[in-house]
Design a protein that fits this description.
195 residues; Immunoglobulin-like; four-stranded antiparallel β-sheet; elongated
Amino acid sequence: MPTTTTTTTTVAPALKLDIFVLQTYNAKTIAFADASTYPNNPPIVTLPTIRLTPPGFDEVALPFLMQTYNVFNSASLRITEVGVEGHLPDGVWQVSYSVFTDVTVCVAKSFMRIDKIQEKFDNAFMTLEMMECDSAIKSQAKIELNSIWFFIQGSVAAANNCAILQSEKLYSQANRMLDRFLNNNCGCNKTSYTY
């Protein structure tokens, strides 16, 4: 009777780089998590590097800690002086993460950052909840805020699909609508809604 032998071979995972943006709920910081798969061989021979290009600023190359998350602020990104933390700009950011084994391996992405406009939207929403207006005015204000939110999400969707100009236009429209909403005190003048 023939015997069957089963041989199991363990294959080391291939180097596959991936990073993603983490939500910090803070307009002054940005965070990235390393979601890469690292093999044991060949080893990483240099410190991994992340290159970030915030909208309107020059690219900056920074060390990146593997298999964890990395948080950056305006000073580390050379937008402000060391010790001074400012708001990071909204808009389309370019990011690339690279390591060197026997060759350089890199992953590059772009994404739409909306933290500042989200903060502004939250402020507009909070004024809506605190208004002393009648229900018809509140309903109209909610419709306007929903429209603004639609433009913000459209901007993110466009950036995710590499439609950068469309993304920037939708963001600008949402920002103008939010400014108008906030400057008109949500349209509440106790007698009528001004749009």
